[in-house]
Design a protein that fits this description.
The complex is a heterodimer of chains A (777) and B (290).
Chain A (H helix, E strand, L loop, with lengths): L1 H16 L2 E10 L10 E4 L4 E4 L5 E7 L4 E6 L6 E5 L4 E8 L6 H5 L15 E5 H6 L9 H5 L5 E2 L9 E2 L7 E5 L2 E2 L4 E2 L4 E2 L6 E7 L13 E7 L8 E6 L4 E10 L3 E9 L2 H11 L5 E17 L4 E20 L2 E22 L3 E21 L3 E25 L2 E25 L4 E26 L4 E14 L2 E17 L2 E12 L1 E4 L10 E4 L7 E14 L4 E18 L17 E18 L4 E15 L9 E2 L6 E12 L2 E10 L3 E2 L4 E6 L13 E6 L6 E2 L3 E14 L2 E10 L9 E7 L2 E8 L4 E9 L1
Parallel strand pairs in A: 1-7, 11-16
Antiparallel strand pairs in A: 1-4, 2-3, 2-5, 5-6, 8-15, 9-10, 11-12, 13-14, 15-16, 17-18, 17-47, 18-19, 19-20, 20-21, 21-22, 22-23, 23-24, 24-25, 25-26, 26-27, 27-28, 28-29, 29-32, 30-31, 32-33, 33-34, 34-35, 35-36, 35-37, 37-38, 38-43, 39-42, 40-41, 43-44, 44-47, 45-46
Chain B lengths: L1 H15 L3 E5 L8 E7 L4 E8 L1 E2 L13 E6 L2 E8 L6 E7 L5 E8 L2 E8 L6 E12 L4 E12 L7 E9 L5 E2 L1 E2 L7 H6 L1 E3 L2 E5 L7 E9 L9 E9 L1 H9 L21 E2 L2 E14 L4
The chains are: A mainly beta (777), B mainly beta (290).
């Protein structure tokens, strides 16, 4: 080991001392001055290339030449070429103009970084435009629905915003909004996610080979970056859709220096219902549901090297009911939502080190309030549960030499878990009696320190490796759980535009989600790992073949993976969140479960031209094993799907007219169905002598998840009409969900009928037309 | 505007009206012999024998009449169990089962045959450390409880399973003491324990191979009368007896979108379904000095 480290140091030093030139810079959108994430920067004379990071920043070290030719490109923008005169060091501000690339230029870009040139395995990025063009339910673009169409991501129950990545559970996804995690991401039970696409810049999904800066969850990282806001001009938009109405405003506060973006979204129908209720004098009851999101971001350029970002997200769902009579009032409100705020400081230290320091607060809360007032008494009940995170972290990156790129960082997270507190107050007027009762005031605290280091080594023109190590020190009650998580990525270029890659990673998850049933619901509770319920761990090896062809118009990846998961939990049979006191939660779960997933995935994308889209196919197998479930035998994971196929595309047949089509197919999810019934005398249950035994009627459930639901398939189509108007641009989206009205399974249920016992499939989403209107100014 | 609102409401109505229900072919399944059997030293074997009925059949006749049910002790036939006509499905033997033996049960009826094997486990090595009376605050109220400390000498390198029952005896009425399920209780029992009928059932997952002092609280309504005493029955269980006792309180949940975990029938019957297993108990009386 010492020899290897010495050799690496020697190589690094050798590279560092050769005559090199450092080219650094930031890539912007020319019209809005927003930074472009993932823009490709390629120096043609030396053949060196890179991509911009989450802050639009890049750094290249190239051998010294008389001059340099830099090509900067980004999907949806005109490619730019820069001729750089001789100099020792460059710090550039590059602006790209939105628009289509001319074909003759594309040809010269064959060598620019593409899917096969990145070191990461199982990483897929989508930008807001791609998300917006995917036809979805009720013509409302949705980020999670778009991610569900990627290979290896299972949506779970139809209509609910599930995300099950490579056989992982719903809690095994780290969902980051501008570097801060969100714990519950659904509105309307999953019809929509909490992410307003108007405020989103880019989303990147990691299914394996996580960079060392990410950890905390076993199966995936979904890194969502909000837009910074236009630094040059004021712009805005509004949209009236079937599910929500949105308003977006952005612009400069100080031109070219400080900008803001604010996006509001609301489910509007409760307002209509309330108005209708007030118009009717007969109506004494009122009820409704609503949700809203507010995204806000401020960013300020302090000087050439320093930038500050303040991000704020606030979103809530509320279900309310009230009743009013002469001497009686009743009000109830059930609400849940996230609140997130982060302050970020990005700094370039001496043209070498790029630093990002973030302090953040995030909380998820679920609450119920019931108030009842009669003539002589009052009652108030409050129940709430939730989780709060406070985080501070710093990430640093630098090209220390032409062939070594170093990333490092550290951070601290403090968690506060409030699984359930109920406050009950009653007040009687006659005897002036007041009672206050607080139940279940249980708070769990835990904390995690992390640090990481990773280095990307360009061993040769063809071979690169990234080796990283992430260390965690998780503390809870009197226990400490240290962990070291190795991360290794290897890439070998098999041709000019093709490569093979391999990755290995280990991850520790310090939080568990107590979830009832088959879908994520707002009442699911996050709990800390403890000495009795230790942190989850996963190991994954993944690799594949990557190829870009036809002048960068198409790319494809074929990947295979094998993942194991340990220390998984599940509710004990017959238990749910209703059946235990929160102090005892560690005792109502089956512990030390294991999981195993393996599969293969294909992603074929057409990235340019009038028709763009992708085909995603996955073959997968995923099982779980608990000592006390299914008689200790492994059983299929509830969202184990052997085959899934998604074909998604949009055809831009005229300027302003886009036809989008999406077809999804999935073989059936497993469910547990009894196969028969039986009666027996239970000789294990002792009764009084001479009274015999109890006679028991039972269903025969031989194995867990022993049956497969019917296959799922669905075609969605949408048509987008965009037209320039005097002061802006209006867009109509007409959409049809489930065009051929396939009755897809949502759940199965046994029912007793006149003909005996029968199994029924319940479906929820038939042929659904929809429309939305938006206007940008 | 009115048209727009109308359109929006129409869409909402469409959405709520789109609930569909269709009948699905039932999974194929053939009827099997269903055995629930238990052997215990110094007792005769008792088994429940019935047949399972596929969901697609409308019959409700689970009875298996005149089956041939033979008990083998260490490969030698020692008993033929006869149908007990006073209790449905019950077949009873006449041969008292021995300690430390292996028993095989063979059942045949028409074209159906089934077989199960039970091994009598060693009696548990336990001792009572202390018994005291205390007031305990539960979620509902304050109750009089018996606090019991027992030491379990768990054998090393084996998975062991236990069931424990406390009875009040010696008075005009015998009664069972109920286990108080709160976090006051012992982590080993809270972790794996489950209440089945009169018993608390638990495994040695936390104290495997150790001498473990377990603290448990049982509800003791009222005072003990003169002459009354407590009787502890602590059983060692075979794994499938343990699984069966755990399964029973949570059997047959049916799935829906919000359904919890379902239980699966423990099964160690070859060519059939059900459980044939053994237990071995020690009984320890405890008299309060005052």
């Amino acid at each position: 080991m010492k020899k290897i480290i010495f050799l690496l140091l020697l190589l690094t030093a050798g590279w560092a001392f050769a005559q090199k030139v450092r080219i650094t810079g930031t890539v912007y959108d020319k019209e809005t001055k927003e930074k472009l994430i993932g823009a490709q920067v390629y120096e043609t004379l030396t053949g060196k290339g890179t991509i911009t990071n989450d802050f639009g920043y890049f750094s290249l070290i190239v051998p010294k030449k008389d001059n340099f030719q830099l090509i900067i490109s980004y999907l949806g923008y005109k490619t730019k070429m820069l001729l750089l005169p001789p100099r020792g060091q460059y710090q550039l501000k590059i602006e790209l103009e939105p628009g289509e690339q001319l074909n003759e230029v594309v040809i010269s870009l064959d060598k620019q970084p593409q899917i096969e040139r990145n070191i990461e395995v199982s990483k897929i990025s989508l930008d807001a435009k791609q998300v917006a063009e995917i036809p979805v339910i009720m013509s409302e673009p949705d980020l999670i629905k778009a991610v569900q169409k990627l290979p290896g991501v299972e949506p779970g129950v139809e209509g609910f915003g599930g995300m099950y990545v490579r056989g992982g559970s719903i809690d095994q996804n780290l969902i980051l909004l501008d570097d801060v995690p969100l714990y519950y991401i659904n509105h309307l039970g999953g019809f929509l996610s909490v992410f307003n696409t108007d405020a989103i810049n880019k989303v990147t999904l990691y299914k394996a080979g996580f960079p060392a800066k990410y950890g905390e969850r076993l199966s995936s990282v979904l890194d969502i970056r909000m837009r910074d806001g236009n630094k040059k001009e004021f712009h805005g938009s509004f949209m009236a859709g079937v599910l929500s109405w949105k308003f977006n405003l952005e612009g400069p506060i100080i031109k070219d220096k400080t900008s803001f973006i604010i996006s509001l979204r609301r489910f509007p129908y409760d307002l209509l219902l309330r108005t209708a209720g007030k118009l009717s004098s007969q109506m004494r009851t009122e009820g409704g549901y609503t949700f809203y999101d507010i995204n806000m971001k401020l960013n300020h350029q302090l000087n050439e090297n320093d930038q500050l970002y303040l991000s704020w997200y606030f979103g809530d769902d509320a279900l309310s009911f009230s009743e009013r009579e002469k001497d009686y009032k009743f009000r109830s409100r059930l609400g849940w939502g996230n609140h997130l705020i982060s302050l970020k400081w990005a700094r370039l230290w001496g043209h070498r080190w790029f630093m990002n320091t973030t302090g953040s607060y995030t909380r998820y809360r679920f609450g119920v309030t019931i108030k009842e007032k009669e003539i002589d008494s009052r009652m108030k009940l409050n129940f709430f549960s939730g989780i709060i995170d406070y985080r501070l972290k710093t990430d640093l990156e630098s090209n220390v030499s032409e062939k070594v790129k170093l990333k490092t960082g550290a951070g601290y997270t403090y968690y506060i878990f409030k699984p359930g507190v109920a406050k009950y107050t009653t007040e009687g007027r006659e005897n002036n009696q007041i009672t206050d009762t607080v139940l279940g005031q249980v708070i769990f605290n835990s904390a995690n320190w992390h640090t990481y280091v990773s280095a990307l080594f360009k061993i040769s023109e063809k071979f690169e490796t990234e080796i990283g190590l992430r260390g965690n020190l998780y503390t809870t009650r009197q226990s400490i759980f240290p962990s070291l998580e190795p991360r290794i990525n290897l890439k070998y270029m098999t041709g000019e535009n093709s490569s093979v890659k391999l990755s290995y990673m280990e991850v520790q998850q310090n939080v568990h989600l107590l979830t009832s049933g088959n879908i994520g619901t707002p009442v699911d509770m996050w709990m800390p790992a403890t000495d009795l319920v230790p942190p989850g761990k996963s190991r994954q090896i993944a690799g594949g073949y990557y190829h870009t062809f036809l002048h960068g118009e198409y790319d494809m990846s074929v990947e295979a993976y094998y993942k194991t998961m340990n220390n998984l939990i599940a509710y004990k049979p017959g238990t749910s969140f209703m059946t235990f006191a929160f102090e005892d939660w560690e005792y109502v779960v089956e512990k030390n479960g294991t999981g195993r997933s393996y599969g293969a995935e294909l992603l074929l994308r057409k990235k340019k031209g009038k028709f763009r889209g992708w085909l995603a196919y996955a073959w997968a197998k995923s099982t779980r094993q608990f000592h006390q479930i299914n008689n200790g035998k492994p059983y299929p994971f509830k969202f184990d799907r052997r085959h899934s196929l998604d074909i998604t595309g949009s055809y831009h047949f005229k300027p302003g007219k886009v036809l989008s089509i999406s077809w999804a197919f999935g073989s059936g999810y497993p469910i547990t169905l009894p196969v028969g019934t039986v009666e027996y005398a239970n000789v294990y249950e002792e009764t009084e002598p001479g009274n015999g035994f109890f006679i028991v009627f039972d269903h025969i459930v031989k194995e867990k998840n022993n049956y497969r639901m019917r296959a799922y398939h669905r075609l969605d189509v949408s048509m987008r009409f965009t037209k320039k108007k005097k002061r802006g641009e209006r867009t109509w989206i007409l959409g049809v969900y489930n065009v051929y009205n396939r009755q897809n399974p949502m759940f199965y249920q046994l029912e007793y009928t006149e003909n005996g016992m029968e199994v029924y499939q319940f479906s929820l989403f038939p042929f659904l037309p929809s429309i939305s209107y938006s206007y940008r100014f | 505007m009115i048209k727009k609102i109308f359109f929006i409401l129409l869409t909402l109505i469409l959405l709520t009206a789109c609930y569909r229900k269709i009948k699905i072919p039932l999974p194929h399944y053939e009827s099997e012999l269903f055995i629930v059997g238990l052997v215990e030293p110094d007792s005769v074997a008792q088994i429940s024998l019935s047949r399972t009925i596929p969901l697609s059949e409308r019959s409700t006749d689970y009875t298996v009449n005149d089956a041939r049910v033979i008990l083998y002790e260490d490969e030698s036939a020692v008993d033929t169990l006869k149908q007990n006509l006073s209790t449905p499905y019950l077949y009873t033997g006449t041969y008292p089962v021995n300690d430390h033996s292996e028993y095989k049960l063979r059942v045949s009826h028409n074209h159906l045959n089934a077989e199960g094997v039970a091994r009598i486990p060693s009696a548990p090595d336990v001792e009572i450390k202390s018994v005291s009376q205390e007031e305990v605050i539960t979620e509902e109220n304050i109750t009089n409880a018996v606090k019991i400390k027992i030491i379990i000498h768990d054998p090393p390198q084996t998975e062991n399973y236990y069931a424990m029952r406390v009875m009040k005896k010696g008075g005009p009425e015998e009664s069972q003491l109920y286990w108080i399920y709160t976090s006051l209780n012992d982590p080993a029992v809270m972790n794996e324990g489950i209440r089945f009928s009169d018993y608390i059932v638990f495994s040695d997952i936390i104290f495997d191979g150790k001498d473990y002092t377990m603290t448990l609280y049982f509800d003791l309504p009222g005072e003990l009368l003169p002459g009354e005493y407590l009787e502890f029955k602590i059983c060692a269980l075979e794994r499938h007896a343990y699984l069966w006792m755990r399964y029973q309180p949570n059997s047959s949940g049916l799935e829906g979108p919000f359904a919890g975990e379902t239980s699966q029938i423990p099964d160690n019957i070859k060519d059939g379904l059900g459980v044939f297993a053994a237990k071995n108990a020690v009984i320890l009386p405890y008299h309060f000095s005052n």
